[in-house]
Amino acid sequence: MSFVYVTRRRYVVALVVLMSLLYFLQQLVSQDPHRYVSAGFFNDAGDERQVAAVETFPESGPCAGRALANATLLMLARNSDLEGAMSSVSQLEEKFNKHCNYPWVFLNEEPFTDAFKWAMGNVTKASVSFGQVPREHWFQPDWVDEDLARAGRDKMVEQGIIYAGSVPYRNIFNSGFFFKHSLLEPYRYYWRVEPDIQYFCDMPYDPFHFMQENDKIYGFTISFYEWEPTIPTLWSNVKEFMAKYPQYVADDNAMAYLSDDGGETYNLCHFWSNFEIADMDFWRAPAYQAFFDFLEAKGGFYYERWGDAPVHSIAAALFAPKSQLHFFQDVGYRHTPFQHCPQGPEWAANKCGCDKLDTLDYRDQSCIPRYQRLFE
Ligand SMILES: *[C@@H]1O[C@H](CO)[C@@H](O)[C@H](O)[C@H]1NC(C)=O
Ligand SMILES: *[C@@H]1O[C@H](CO)[C@@H](O)[C@H](O)[C@H]1NC(C)=O
After folding, report:
1. Which residues carry out catalysis (predicted)?
2. Nearest alpha carbon to residue 76 among 85, 67, 68
3. What would the pLDDT profile of 278-324 be if each residue is shown by its tens digit?
């Protein structure tokens, strides 16, 4: 009796083990080779990296035949941006990255939800990382006079400036910090992608290799005028910086793009930084670090509303020779309400899904003509 009982129990245990093994094998076999394994990258900040299980060397497409550049795709998003983020990521995947599998880094002010992480892992087969930007990297520091900052915000609200009344913050992109985030530290180049944008054209080449081979530090697609009430004292501070640190101002810079009177006044031209392909080693170098520290100490990110677009643009235009800037005129891109649609033969060649006539380039609000005159 007891012998039979023991045998049956062993039989059941063996069966369970066998079934589990079969289930496990079946899972292994049915697994998409591009599925992600959470590869145990967790740091103190709770950042997480999921590494693609299979990293394949691209055999065709824009990245064929060579190793990927030292670069990442980068998105700043909130959990509430989930839909817009999925839309942007899938478009860039479709037009470019499905051939290349450049990794994605997502940064947020708070921890990403599992739903967000799952959704992003679902729209790309590249590695994805999710990080939180430490509060001290984006929030108004203690030394800022909050009464003064509030007065500045109230004034901008009266002038109808969108978001001006919100919690004091310094957008993480104009901060001197984002490129120091542990998830970005390993990389040199990034392509900034915002939620809710549109890409219209196939990308037939690798823009990161293009940047590297042509010694570019900053690439853009749209350029227009900044709204003056957000930056009333920015230019006087830029002039003070240039006088104090002439060693950082590059020969053959793009001052003529920023100023129509040799640097006396700012014409408000800037590169629209929600699209940005840039070299973080430029942000990490002493010129930009000194510039950021100088501007930060002036408090204009809080008392006014200095945005990342003019701050990045002014730095790129002044601290690098103009030959290191690049207009990605073959990239069709829209961030409502503005868009850039390629005008040349690449419109057809790259199957651009935008109306050629709908492009900001030569309208009154555009600074592209000034940019192009730099090279005439
Ligand atoms: C995730 O991918 C599956 C299969 O491709 C799809 O059916 C599903 O809708 C996707 N989920 C999300 C949130 O995109
Ligand atoms: C990528 O670039 C970063 C920043 O320049 C550098 O620290 C890192 O060593 C580079 N990685 C490789 C593999 O070259």
Report:
1. 276
2. 85
3. 999 999 999 999 999 999 999 998 888 888 899 999 999 999 999 99
